[in-house]
Write a structure and sequence with these properties.
The chain is built from 9 helices and 8 strands. Strand 4 and strand 5 form a beta hairpin. It has a single domain (about 1-30, about 50-225), classed as Peptide methionine sulphoxide reductase MsrA (Peptide Methionine Sulfoxide Reductase, Chain A), CATH 3.30.1060.10. It starts with a helix and ends in a 15-residue tail after the last helix. The strands form 2 sheets. Strands 7-6-1-3-2-8 form a 6-stranded mixed beta sheet, covered by helices on one side. The protein has a two-stranded antiparallel ribbon with strand order 4-5. The chain is of the alpha+beta class.
Length: about 240
């Protein structure tokens, strides 16, 4: 995969590298599993007009960000931290697992194109495994917990009802471990964490743990899949 590195000098080259990595990844990379899940029964229209946002945690933020950058209607997906204080919102501190923060992604979306319920359908089905407690794949610790940081009662109602629906239907073999937490503040992560999949599609960790998520999005939810990711960087 070394030839990908030669192409990262331009935006077009990086986009092509990511697309090829997703479509040509060897089957041995695809350790991420995903299964179709039903849409939420409770998915009302937002009470506010304009763009909406929700903060989601589901393991390493690289992969979660990468998935939502490929979702139709998502205007921006920013990696960051939620659950702790401003003073501890740094990667070196959060990585110790004692700050209360979770690696998170703030997903800003156009509700005229994609609803909160459909965002959560992506989150529960392909962005991460919601049954794992304080871990995702090779990453362990409370900073990798599955959590939805809700900003208002409407978001909380949709999230709680969807979890109850999926658990009642026994969609997963064990109960969902996702926590519903109140959002106090979201802190964007350091610049080098943004658009990480786009810039590093040939890294082993990314190829093994993250690119299969995007392939699963295209396979399971093709109506929501967007080929070109909506990046944080506008270069």
């Amino acid at each position: 995969m070394a030839w990908f590195s030669k192409m990262r000098g331009s935006l077009a080259g990086a986009a092509l590298a990511l697309t090829l990595a997703i479509h040509l990844a060897p089957a041995s990379w695809a350790v991420e599993t995903a299964a179709p899940i039903p849409p939420p029964a409770h998915d009302p229209a937002p009470t506010r007009v304009g763009l909406q946002s929700v903060v989601l945690a589901g393991g390493c933020f690289w992969g979660v960000q990468g998935v939502f950058q490929h979702v139709e209607g998502v205007e921006q997906a920013v990696s960051g931290y939620a659950g702790g204080t401003r003073a501890s919102a740094r990667y070196d501190a959060v990585s110790l697992g004692r700050t209360g923060h979770a690696e998170s992604v703030k997903v800003t979306y156009d509700p005229k194109i994609v609803s909160l319920g459909r965002i959560l359908r992506v989150y529960f089905s392909v962005a991460h495994d919601p049954t794992q407690l304080d871990r995702q794949g090779p990453d362990h610790g409370t900073q990798y917990r599955s959590a939805i940081f809700v900003a208002d009662p409407g978001q909380e109602s949709v999230a709680r009802d969807y979890i109850a629906q999926l658990d009642a239907a026994r969609v997963f073999r064990v109960p969902i471990a996702t926590r519903i937490e109140q959002l106090s503040e979201f802190y964007p992560a350091e610049g080098y964490h943004q658009d990480y999949l786009f810039h590093h599609p040939d890294e082993t960790y990314v190829a093994t743990n993250d690119l299969p998520k995007i392939a699963n999005l295209k396979r399971l939810l093709p109506d929501l899949y967007r080929e070109t990711p909506k990046l944080v960087s506008r270069r």
